[in-house]
Amino acid sequence: MQSELEKSLMGELTFFLGLQIKKVADRIFINQFKYIIDMPKKFKMNKLKGIDTPMNSGIQLDKDEKSKDVDKKLYRGMINSLLYLTESRLDIYFSVCLCARFQSSPKKSHLIAVKRIFRYLINISSISF
To answer: CA nearest 35: which of 18, 15, 13?
Structure first.
């Protein structure tokens, strides 16, 4: 069987599914820095100015039926990208989950809250990298 199946050595794993992997001595470090940098570009928001918090402390998101509808596909794409990021960034977990509740009928106020999370990530990426 070994003669039929040829192995190939691809080198050390450094990047997988948006995760950067670095092995140092006997430890493995995993981060999503590159994902954080690339995500705003994906939604054409890389030119936005960064802010210090992912959400206003007094914000109260609700159905907001009076507000204007926004593109569901765009909103869901943004939320899904942020949800993937919450695995390593607990600082945005609450804000993303709050915004994710409104995926069935997103309004302009919900999109503004999601864009604020992106602005926070832009700020973090400029500081951390």
So the answer is: 18
pTM, to two decimals: 0.79
Distance CA 16, CA 22 (A): 11
Angstrom distance (rounded) from CA 53 to CA 91: 9
In order along its 129 residues, the chain shows pLDDT tens digits of: 566 666 665 667 787 777 888 888 889 888 888 888 888 889 998 788 888 999 988 888 888 888 899 999 999 999 999 999 888 889 999 999 999 999 999 999 999 999 999 999 988 877 654
Cβ pair 49, 119 in contact under 8 A = yes
Query: Percentage helix, strand, coil, to 5, in the chain?
Result: 45, 10, 45
Q: Which residue has the tokens 């948006």?
A: 18
